[in-house]
Every structure is written in structure tokens, then in C-alpha cells.
Amino acid sequence: MSVDADIVRRIGHLARIKLKEENLQGLAGELNTILGFVEQLDEVDVSGVEPMTSVIPSTLRVRKDEVTDGGYSDKITSNAPISEDGFFMVPKVVE
Amino acid sequence: MSDLIKLSLKATRDGLKNKDFSAVEITDSYLSEIEKSNSKLNAYISVEAEQARVMAKASDVKLAKGQGGALEGVPLGIKDLFSTKGTHTQAGSHILDGFKPEYESSITTNLWNDGAVMLGKLNMDEFAMGSSNETSYYGAVVNPWRAKGSNKDLVPGGSSGGSAAAVSAWLCAGATATDTGGSIRQPAAFTGTVGIKPTYGRCSRWGVVAFASSLDQAGPITRTVEDSALMLNSMAGFDKKDSTSVDISVPDFATAVERGVKGLTIGIPKEYRMEGMPQEIETLWQQGMAWLKDEGAIIKDISLPNTKYALPAYYIVAPAEASSNLARYDGVKYGLRVAGGSIDEMYENTRAKGFGAEVQRRVLIGTYVLSAGYYDAYYVKAQKVRTLIKRDFEQVFADGIDAILTPATPSAAFGVNDQEMKEDPVKMYLNDIFTVTVNMAGLPAIAVPAGKDGSGLPLALQIIGKPFDEETLFAAGRVIERSANIDFTPKKWW
Description:
Number of domains of chain B: 1
Number of strands of chain A: 2
Strand order of the largest sheet of chain A: 1-2
CATH class of chain B: Alpha Beta
Mean pLDDT of chain B: 97
Number of strands of chain B: 11
Largest sheet of chain A: 2 strands, antiparallel
Oligomer: heterodimer
Largest interface: A-B, 51 and 75 residues
Strand content of chain A: under 5%
Low-confidence stretches of chain A: none
Helix content of chain B: 25-40%
Largest sheet of chain B: 8 strands, mixed
Shape of chain B: globular
CATH superfamily of chain B: Amidase signature (AS) domain
Radius of gyration of chain A: 22 Å
Mean pLDDT of chain A: 93
Radius of gyration of chain B: 21 Å
Distance between the termini of chain B: 12 Å
Shape of chain A: flat
Number of helices of chain A: 3
Order of helices and strands of chain B: HHEHEHEHEHEEHEHEHHHHEHHHEEH
CATH architecture of chain B: Alpha-Beta Complex
């Protein structure tokens, strides 16, 4: 499997990173080098092997479903580039 | 230079307790050394002098009354990946411009509760993605070590390059670091310092900026094995705020340090004898086996057949998790924002400007391997290979192996701006060939300086342990440190 400039442009969009047209070819080359490297895994027989979900045997802890934290929207928005009245501000999304 | 800063963390702690010097005194010594040296080494990206003095004064009050925690008054550097309330926290990235968290990471909370003093935030590869500290938005860190007769700047390794350089150059008594594929152990190896990556789940990840959540684990970088044990004792512990934190008691690691290796069976995995490995690495490895044997350990050849697949599997798992974790940097909640006509354009512009080239590359790879149609071929396959890698280790431990000895890195520190590594990202990734297996299997491992290469640069050995058996690593690491008996202080040129 290898990627070309068109695929890189599409991945860039999925990743929400604006890529410069003149860099697409170079990036495709770099990504193909990495994908070529990981292709070694094709040699491994993984039939009947379960994919790892956790390195340490554990079950997720559960707790009572109740409010344990919150009530400080000022703190949560204190680092926002633009905020107003405890809300994050974004460009208009609904016409 | 004040001699106080050359003390080990243990000697610092004991000297403070005995009132041989005060916390303010040693904190000021470090701050003045940072002021003199940091422009050359670039280890700190933010120095918190005022806060450090406030913390030191508070420690002196406690120490005067004979009170205080296990690290009372000990000045530490903190990797920029750890959230520290009200102070610079940017993960070495431009995208978190101006971010000052409203909260404190659990690990640094533990350290402050034990009385430690924060000197400032340490440089690192952007979002911990790198093996040379050159991907930092704040520029490369320079290794305090130089090859004999050379003025060439070397890298301190990465991603915890600032932590390793600061510890080696006496800019802090110890430093926090994190390790996703080797980011504690490789920089420790490159700077003649000691670095341990504890078992996954030993240290809380809460408040540590996430790179690859199933692999990330924090640990200390220090000047000695004993210091490593003392600092890990303060960092480790169960935390209900991290769902992968393991509820298991933390032993007193320091008491294990002088325990020795008599009767332990140490495995030597043949797969770590890589093609083209320099002779001096092989020699060092043999020397390490001899040292452990001399102290009563049994050396046994073992096989970990899936070793060579760890790095390729890592370069699927880590970017995949990174692409997901880094989705939160969107110009809305914190940090940098670059305007755009629509919200999508704003996202795209912000992330294009805020992420450096290596981070973009990994997010793109991660997005690709997780995209529709490729998920099974890449991500699921890699997680299956990971099961096999872990099984290899389980097998040898079940067969009676207590710990595994390997080289820590395939070479000593290389030059800043290495042309070959720049042209081929995979060449840079190969730095982690000996360290990455451990992250894939969630095991603990320590890097201990053990020798020098032909040009006088430090080389390290790695010891890998069973889950939650960091104690054996400290014991075996101490044997290597004591047997090597080499002075790992760099010759000051800066």
C-alpha cells in the first residue's frame, strides 16, 4: 500500500491540517518510507492472536454515576483564545 | 560554581535534613547556574525563579522544625509535558502558545507534597515525538557531552532531552521525564545519567500531556541509581483520576538498591544482537554480563523472537493514538488560533501553523492507518503483533528469568542536525530499537551508564524487568553502576 499526493491531501483534510500543495509530493515520499518500514509486519502470522487491549491485566474501575466535579467554566475557558460568558467562541457554523 | 549543585539527590536531601545548607541556598545555586549555562544548553524553556524561592522558603520552615517530606527542599526540573498550575506548559509545541493550566498533574502534585522545589520547565521534542530533542518549537537542546577533541554539538537524545541535559549539567538535582518508546532511557544513555521507565500503570498519567496513551509512562532521570529509586518513590502511586493507574502498593525502592543480584537469573536475548551493531556496544554488553556474573547472577541466553517487529508495530500504534490525542488542539480551547473563513479552515490553519513537521508527519500517518478500510490491516494487525511481543516476555519470565540485560541504544550521542537522519525519518526511529519493546509490553526498564565509546561519550546498558518489579532493576542497575565505577560528569565547556 502506498500513498500519492492526492491521498496525502485527503489525509491532511481528515487530520484538519492545511498542507501546502508544493509539499504534498515530499510528504507522500516520507509517509511511504514509514509505511514501507511497517510492511515488515506482513511476515508475521497473527492468525488466532487476539489484538492487545491493555498491557496490564485490568478491568476498568466503575464508580457511582454522580457529579463529582465542575462548576468552574471560567477556569475551563481561561486559556481559550476567544471566550465569552464562560463559552468558547468559534467562527459561525450555522447560517 | 557552587559545589552544592554537584551533590546527588540523596546527598542534597540528607544535607538539607542535617541543616548543612538551606533549601533557599541550594535553590539559588541552581538558579544562578541555570542563568549562566542555559543560553548554551537550552535545557530549560521556562525558569520559575520566583516560585522556586517561595517553595524553598516554605521547605526551610519545615526543615527548621525537623519536619518535611521525602524530598523536602530538593530542587527539580520538570519536563514541559507535565501540567503545572499557572506555569508554562506547552509540550515543546507552538500550538499550546501561552497555555498555563488551571490544574497540577498528579505526579508533580506528589513531588510537591513530598517537599520538592520546582526550578522550571524542561525542553523536549514537540509532544514527545523525537529522539534528538530537535523537534522542539524551542530549538534543540545541546548535550553537555562532547567527543574528545571535538567542538561539535551533540544531541542529548529525546524526547526527554532537556531533562537529561539538565541533570547531567548540574542544572537540577533530578528531573521528571516520560517514555513512550524510549524517551527516558535513550536520553539518559546519551548523557551518562540514569533513567527508569516504570511499569505501565505505576505512575499516574493524569495531567501529563498525552502522546500515545497505551504506551506513555513517566519516570525520573537522575545522576545515580539510588537517586532514581528515591525520586520514583515520590512520583509513583495509585491515582483514581487515571483509569489505567494500577492500585498496588509502592515498595520502598531505595531499600532494594544495595540488594545485589546473587542468585538472580539474567536473560540475554539473542535478537538484540543486531546486524551492524558497533563492536563497542557488543563489548559493553559482554562486560555487563561479566559484572552481573561476578556478583553471583546466573547468565542465560534467551530468545524473544518477535523483537524485530516491535518498532514497525510501534510506528502504527503510536501515531494512531497520537492522531486521536492531538485532535484536541483545534484553536478553540487553548493555545494558538489562526483565523479562517469557516470553522474547518480555522482548524486547518491553526494545526498547520501550530504543529511542527514531525508532529504533522505522525498525525498524518496515524490518520491514514485509522482511516476507513485500513484500520484492520494496520492498527488491529499491530495490536496483534503487540500481543506476541508481550507473550515473548511472559514466556521467558515463566521459564525463570528474573530480568533481561540489553544495550540501551545502538550508538552514543550523534551530532545536532545529522544529515542522514534528517533525510530518512526511519533512521531516526531506529534509535529506539532496544527500548521500544518494553513500552509495547508495558514492562519496566532502566538505563544505567556503563561505559564510554572510543571518543569518550557515555554508553548505557538496559535492564528489563517483570511487571511491577522495579526493585530488581534498581538492584541490578546498582551493580552495573558500582562495577563500572566510571565518573560520568561531563567536562565543562559551556
